[in-house]
Amino acid sequence: MKTPRTIVVGITGGIAAYKAVNIVRAFVLNGDSVHVVATPAALRFVGKPTLEAISRNPVHTDLYEGVAEVRHVAIGQGADLIVVAPATANSIAKLAAGLADDLLGNTILASTAPLVIAPAMHTEMWNNPATVANIAVLRSRGITIVGPGVGRLTGTDSGAGRMEEPDTIVAVALAVLDRATPAGEAAASAVPDLAGRRVLISAGGTREPLDPVRFLGNRSSGMQGVALAQAALARGARVTFVAANLEVPVPTSITTVLVGSALEMHEAMTRAAETAEVIIMAAAVADYRPRSVQVGKIKKEDVGDTLMLELVKNPDILADLAAERRPGQLIIGFAAETETDADRLLALGRAKITRKGCDFLVVNRVGKDAGFGTERNTVTVLDRRGVIVNEVSGSKMSVANCILDLIG
Ligand code: CTP
Asked: What is the dihedral of CA 108, 110, 111, 112, to 10 degrees?
């Protein structure tokens, strides 16, 4: 059984506070011990009994309660991770200035735990030079900022400033926590080691159209690619995500280019690669597409009992990116193989990395029960010489972190 970690969830006074309930619940369901510190303003948006019932712990707000147990520092000292969601413009300004005029401010100042914040405010406030400067200060201190996303805001307006979706905040926060408290090991630093690095990730499976209603596709859900994007975000990277037909939600705060087919992905990746320092090609790309796409639906009456499809080869995106790489660009590919014999699997991987010309190849056995659409993954990472540099089996998030460790 895993040892529960202590997560402090700070909730500040914005309308997105009601979504913090889902964040608290997700941490509790993950087996962690959750303590909510809410500002008085937050409790105008969400009720204390709700937060206490969901967190299974008392909710603290007042700086002058629990003085005998020195609560204003005790909560922060006992935390393994602090997550502030939502973080209003005002609370971000207070954090940047190191103010401690409420219990949450004291808790954060008294803690050495990693801090993750999820800003939420109107677009004008997010773009205000004061907020921009405050966020830069927080980033420079190694604080992980998740979001904000772009979308509908309170009222009728929409734009940047919407709090990132709870699932993404939880995934990023747990990625930060896992790196700070790896099971059975001495605590590693959770400092965002990829701060500012430009990482381009492709994910999902391409669909090659046959006619207006049909396509040739594959079973990739995009889960490993989304885990890579979340882990990269948690480690401070500037992520661009090229997504093909994902079955899982994409974090709204990540710059995402949606594509359908291999040709669209080729174009999007080639363009995005111009500014990327690291490229991770996790997408399952169709090797072939129908030579022609029918304008109208293919009708049985017109075809008869047998339908012959003529397919033409798609460009090899990874090989093209590797052939045209910018100086210093690091390129990581995946190999999806159904081979069950370990030696033959490795031989396929070695041949593939030579063919593709990338720096590392993440060899992934796939099939109905492995790789695609499952929560866990087992991979072997090869370098250019075909030498095994890592073998990992675990959650897609832990596999993602091992892949990101390849970035020097
Ligand atoms: N890939 C690509 N463009 C393609 C096919 C694959 O960029 N047209 C990339 C994938 O994103 C992956 C790597 O190449 O990073 C290996 O993909 P995989 O499907 O394992 O291999 P293929 O090159 O398609 O070869 P094969 O299907 O013969 O194993």
From this structure: 120
Which pTM does this prediction carry? Answer: 0.81
Q: Give the number of other CB atoms < 10 A from CB of residue 266.
A: 20
Q: Is the CB of 287 under 6 A from ligand 1?
A: yes
Query: CA of 145: how far to CAs of 226, 235, 344, in Å?
Result: 17, 10, 43
Q: Residue 180: what pLDDT? A: 80
Q: What's the full length of the chain, in residues?
A: 408
26 contacts 40 by C-beta, under 8 angstroms: no
101 residue type, one letter? D
Task: Quick: pLDDT tens for 97-113.
Answer: 999 999 999 999 999 99
Are the C-beta atoms of 15 and 154 separated by less than 8 Å? yes
Q: Do 102 and 214 lie in a common domain?
A: no
- Residue 277's pLDDT band (cuts 50, 70, 90): very high
Give Cβ neighbours of residue 325 (< 8 Å, ≥ 6 apart): 273, 331
Both tokens of 314, joined, read: 């798609």
Both 255 and 171 in one domain: the answer is: no
Could you report the per-residue pLDDT of 49-95, keeping only the tens digit for each?
Answer: 999 999 999 999 998 888 888 878 999 999 999 999 999 999 999 99
Contact status, residue 263 vs residue 288, Cβ threshold 8 Å: no
Same domain, 206 and 181: no
Structure tokens that stand for 392 in this block:
């990992």
Which is the closest atom of ligand 1 to the Cα of 318? 7
CB-based burial of residue 299 (10 Å sphere; 0-12 exposed, 13-18 middle, 19+ buried)? exposed
The pLDDT value recorded for residue 371 is 64
Q: Is the CB of 281 under 6 A from ligand 1?
A: yes
Atom 8, ligand 1: residue with shortest CA distance: 316
Task: Report how far residue 201's alpha carbon sits from residue 279's, in angstroms, rounded to the nearest whole number.
Answer: 6
Half-sphere exposure of 21 (CA within 13 A, CB side): 15
Clarify whether residues 268 and 140 are in a common domain: no
* Ligand 1 neighbour 366 (Cβ under 6 A): no
Q: How many C-beta atoms lie closer than 10 Å to residue 376's C-beta? A: 13
| 320 CA closest ligand 1 atom index | 7
pLDDT score recorded for residue 185: 43
Widest pairwise Cα distance in the chain: 85
Instruction: Decide if 300 is inside a domain.
Output: no
